[in-house]
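Schema walk-through. Below, the input block comes first and the output block second. Nothing else is stored per chain. Lengths vary across the set, and this one has 372 residues.
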Amino acid sequence: MMLDTIAITLPEKDFRIKYPDRFNPNAGAVFNPVFGDTGLIKAIYNPTKAEKTRGYKPRLTLMKRPYTERARAIWLKIEFSAPKLIFGNNFEELQSNDLEAVLTALHQALTDMGIETAYEALRSARVSAIHYSKNILLERATPCFLLIQALEKLDLTQTDFRNGGQMVKYHASTYEIALYDKVKDLEQASKYGDKRGIETDYGCMDDLFADKRKPEVLRFEARLTSRKIKPLFKTLGFTQDCTLNDLFNASLSRAVLLHYWQTITNGLYLMNIDTKDIERLVHAIRAAFPKKRPGKIMELIGFIAVCQNLGVRGARLALGLKNHQWYRLKADTKVLENSKTCPRFLILNGIKQQLEEFIPLERQDIVIEGLI
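--- output ---
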């Protein structure tokens, strides 16, 4: 079961706070606001370093919405990493049958934090955000940054490439896709603090790789908000309710990640074409387009070469192509995908295979004793 961060919300009737002073500001300010019901009020409880040394704990946000009847006004948001609750790290991945273990660990962690709630209330809690994820174990000869460089050349919009090529992020208003070097991110956070890492809460993680050879692990995450969950699931043919019980689902996680991988790699066909053997490429174009004139063949070869060097979006900007030219050249190149050209991005195809197989990583897969 490949998911990591989950945010659930409990209505006021489903929880009680024993230690309101642990929130900042005091939780009492939410239940009885000094200045009346004029705006959204929040109180936050982030576990202290001392609490983290005793095991992973979720982050809590108590909220009161303005101008809402009391029964629906106050909510407790509980944000946690499911694998960190169970394993103490999120390199290892959960199985489909781990829901009961996650609920038990979450209930105990909340009890330790002074939050009283029922086990079944957690099971049926509404999900406000969920991060479906997969840790993809690469061959040691294939560093993550090579994959991220390859992704940089694809036809993506609203994309950030960060941390010296260690991460690519695609973002929209209701979801975010992130691919990054998981081990490098851990190293950076360990050296400079959590704020320098792509994800937080590394401080509570076990040091899996101390005195060991580090693996190459590409992290792939689809971070969905509640506004994206239902329309996306409808597109994928799922009818689950937005509860923790229903969204803790391996088939759903696999479908979401494959959907976004397909979206990301739609431009992969441009990179798969072998431009080193020009004679072979000319024959492939002639076979696909028997009526294409020599000038148009040269135009298509040039377009492919520029895309492979500058990236798909970079090529469009550099060449100054009009919309009709751009879409015609892309369509022509797409036809060549089925020709006998040499794939240059087999590594990316290998990632898709791991997503299709969807086998959870276990400790023995990534931590090999006696390497150093």
